[in-house]
Amino acid sequence: MILTIVRTSMQNMIDAIEGTIIMTPDIVDSIGAVFDFRVPRKFQFDPTGAEISWMTPSLAGWIKGLLDRHYQLNNWISKERPPSYWLTGFFNPQGFLTAMKQEVTRIKKTWALDAVEYTTDVIKEVIQGDDGRIEGKAITPPQEGVYIHGLYLEGAGWNRTERRLEDSNPKELFYQFPIIHVGAVCTTPNPNERGGGATAMLANLEKTAFSCPVYKYPKRNDKYLIFRCYLKPEASGAPSSANKGLSAPMKWRLCGVCLLCTKE
Amino acid sequence: MATIKTKSKEVNEKLVEAREKKIEINEKRELFRPVAARGAVLYFCIVEMTLVNWMYNTSLSQFLGLFDYAIDNSPKAQLVKDRVQIIINWLTRRTYRYINRGLFERDKVTFKLMVATKILIKDGRLTPADVGLLLKAGGGIDDRSKPFQWMEQKTWLNLKALSKHKFANDHTFFFKELPDRITRNDQIWRKWIDENEPEKTPVPDYEEKISADQNIGHFIHLCLVRSMREDRTVLASNMFIKEVLGEEFVQPVTDQIFEIFEETKTNVPVLYLLSKGADPTGAIDEYAKKKKQFPTGKVSMGEEMEIPAANLIDTGMAAGKWVVLNNCHLSLEFMAEMEAILNPKDKEVHEDFRLWITCEPHTEFPLGLLQMAVKVTTEPPKGLQAGLSRTFNTMVSQDFLEKVEPYDKWRSLVFSICFMHSVVQERRKFGPLGFCIAYEFNNADLEASLTYIDKHLTMSAALNIPYSWKAMQYMVVQAQYGGRITDDLDRETFITYGNLWVQETIFQPNYCFNNLITDFTYQIPDTIEHVRFLEYIATMPGKDNPSIFGLHPNADLTFRLKESLEMITVLIETQPKDSGGGSGLSREETVKEKIEKELLVQLPPDFILLDVNERLKHLKGPRGIGDPETIPLNIFLRQEIDRF
Which pTM does this prediction carry? Predict the structure, then answer.
């Protein structure tokens, strides 16, 4: 779809410039955009105004995004599942995570999908670079759930050794975030489990961890919210009442910490 | 015969003289051409600003008024050359002040940068392509060969673009060796890029070369800073503007109301462009008192207020009184008639009559009125200190502080909630890092919150029960302010402030609002006097450290980056659409070549549906999941490919 739209639109611009088709206001706009290195509106929105691609502001960045996205999908379909997925590269990242949840649920047989929640675990490895490509990196896919990468942390830094949030370094606005293992748990009480099982675990995380929203773009809104991921807010055993009623998760909330699929 | 001869000689001489005069006049006239050229530059900048905001519309005749003023009032000079320069300076300064007054804060640097670059283009010192480089930088390049791990990809693309650019009439690439230099001098460059104020720090390797270029060194420097430290673009632009236009163009200016008044006439009204939290009526009243025009005839526009307003104008015109029409965006049809109302054909207008209009920007505001009025923007001063000071000057009085018992607790709560009010308003400037949505919190939210606190304290005292902090937090954060909040994350942020600042510990002596270290300790002043509160507020820093919002100091960088990007976007949008790419090709030829040679060839082949279907049949999932065609992630992949 998007490839066809872009190809046709580019051909139309050429034809209109050469005079073989009529120059329409739409084409004039597109030409203006290409000249200014901006993305023609046609590449990003359908006639109803719905987003049909990614919101990269510069044309070169947008085309690069197209190549990188194509690369991931093409590799997946032609070879096998990648050991880690570049979340940025999906049209519908929520759909991706839901599909993962469905898979885990289906294998578990006894789980009911609407009682299943995500679990997240930040691992140590970082996939460097902003193109999402993982070739040449030895990653063993998880037993259950998926690895995702390509995220940036805004508003805080990340301590890779202790796998927890820490203050940003001066002038570093974004941190390339390590791979996250996203899995699923069933919150239906299991009589064989002790200590309240998954529900208690999630409740405890809600209290002690930082619930970090993951957005598609730096512009944060409901539409671009993908899911939330629990991050460790401070070193284990850190004095919790350090700052007059300001717990570590509260601190990160005021710092505006979140994870983003792209920096622009 | 002799007489005829003499006459003929005389005539000939006269003719020669006339010819010489003509040449002289032409020469003189040519000498004044730069004045016209500057006028044209300024006028086109004014016209382009209307693309930014409809309310910026200014007519040619208004501009010609400025032009005449500059010619009539500027000092004379012996040499024409000097005279020309004086007029140009006067005209530029006068136009700047006139237009600047009617621009919102965010557009002021934009306008000056536009003027400065256009002047240099007119002088032949810059080309449109140079300005294109400044604005677009590396936006047109894809290059994955970045050799420095520490450098942002975007910065790398910008510097690549910089290294491939020929400035103005230069035949060489000024920054050709830049990538090379950085490779060789990695540490020094990194240090420069990490400077707090790189725009004021000598540039490694290039400092001499840049300052040696007397012509456009300042512009080249701006391009470099913009490319390497985008967040410093606005600040570097100010340095550039200072070099091109002069010191006074970067000094903060405030236009006093009497200066504005001087430009009004009976048919030239003042048009205040409103923004949230600003209200010029107080200032108008003050000035009206001075001018013996108080009280003014005041109408707040809205439904069915047109007739009272028209009547008031009528009497004002006859008696020479002032009329103030507020919120005129609510009566646009009436505004459309204003041009005719102010220029009546059938009656005399008293020379003291004046009309003052306040109005929020509106794209359907009548052009005629915009083009005859003196436009003035009003924006509330920024920062916590200004915000708190405004609240304590308007809403909170000595009586208010003594309204509820126990007074000390009431005062602490009032101050704390006012403080929070200012914090959440200022936090918006950080964009998404601050709040996902820029809410228009206003005094009504604050007032309602304090009213609730008043009731809660009174009731608790009457029933002799302890305060319910939960209830107060809920009512302030969720019910009052929360009524505006639509995003969950923003709600959580606000709740965090509520938990911090609407709770018992604020009653402790020396309670301090800042949880992180800042230069200033924000406290609740320990006093019962309103004036002491004001004094304390006045000691707060004018520039807020992000820490007081709970943000990391880096947030200032985020803020500046946002500011710079907004300015660049506005400038790109207002660029004239007729210029070529600088390579001698027309705009369309440039685009055609780019699409054919760069873009189309890069596109990957389409996915072939049959092929995809076939492959999906063999794409395995985890063990025990079943038939590949029903595997959820395979179905997901299929959907993604369909959209590609």
Answer: 0.89
